Each structure stands twice: as C-alpha cells, then as structure tokens.
Amino acid sequence: MSEWIDKVAKADRILGKLLSEVYAALNNDLRVLAAIGARTAFDRSSELLQIDPALSFREKLDELVSIGKVGTSERDTLEVLVDAGSAAAHRGWVPKAKELRTMMAIVEAFLHREFVLGDRLKKLKAAVPPKPARKKTRTRHDP
After folding, report:
1. What is the pLDDT of residue 117?
2. Separation CA 123–CA 14 (nearest Å)
3. Short-list 114, 91, 88, 76, CA closest to 31
4. In sequence order, which residues have a C-beta less than 8 Å from that of residue 80 and are 6 or more positions away?
5. pLDDT in tens for each of the 143 residues of the chain?
6. d(CA 1, CA 4)
7. With the CA atoms of 33, 34, 36 and 42 taken in that order, what torsion angle do they form, in degrees rounded to the nearest 10?
8. Containing H/E element for 136?
C-alpha cells in the first residue's frame, strides 16, 4: 500500500480495511466487487466527515456541499462514482478496466484530499512566509 493509503488506514481502521479489500478485488480482476467497494469507501468517508449515515447518497453529496467539504463540480463527479457503484451492486453492471480506473481515481482523489492533504496543507501554510504589506504610494492629490 502507498504511504497515503496507510495514513487513511491509521485515521480509520474500517476505511483502511475497505481500501485493502478494494485493491485486493482490483488485483484479482473482481471488477464488480471493486466498484461496489469504491462506493462503500466513499460512503464510509462521508460518515467520518460527520455526514449522517442514514441519508441517501444524493443527500450525503448535498450535505458535503453545504458544509463546504466539496464544491458542486466535485459533487457531480462523486455522484457518478456513487451511481457506478450502485449499478454494479444492484444492476449487475460490470465496469470495464478503464471505467474502474476512473472510479478509483475519483475515490482516491477525494480520500487523499480529505484525509491526507489536510495535515500537509496546514504544514505548508505555516511554512509559507506572509506576503509583505503594500507600501502606501503617494498620489498627486496627497499633501
């Protein structure tokens, strides 16, 4: 597993186990299970972000927007992930390898930003020197 996935697993044992199983499914070409697992990993992560687990996926996505965790564009992207996982779970859809890679890119980007990048962002922000204050310039009308 990569370093960032290890950090996600340390943040939440259940989410770490889900990711481990998703990658095992991917490594064994179990595409339906991997697709369902990607959706489930998103579902667990939304719960960790204090989203009510009793809400529908659509309501969870709307709530993530309302609390500022995702923008409308990312909400739409995550909705595609959820719909694809639901199609695999409930309609027997078998994603092609390329489609599954897209699903994984979506869930990985979301998890990385929410559970790994946050700490790095805080450290980066603290390390960046502040922008110097602008010197007041005199205009022709100043005495």
Report:
1. 87
2. 27
3. 88
4. 106
5. 577 788 888 889 999 999 999 999 999 999 999 999 999 999 999 999 999 999 999 999 999 999 999 999 999 999 999 999 999 999 999 999 999 999 999 999 999 999 888 878 889 999 999 999 888 876 666 55
6. 8
7. 150
8. none
Predicted confidence at residue 97, as pLDDT, reads 96
Following DSSP, what letter does each residue of 68-109 receive, concatenated? TSS-HHHHHHHHHHHHHHHHHHHS-----HHHHHHHHHHHHH
Measured CA to CA, the distance from residue 53 to residue 47 in angstroms comes to 6
| Three-class DSSP category at 55 | coil
What's the Cα-to-Cα distance from 57 to each of 15, 42, 87, 98, rounded to whole Å?
A: 17, 10, 13, 24
Residue 107 carries which side chain, given as an amino acid letter?
V
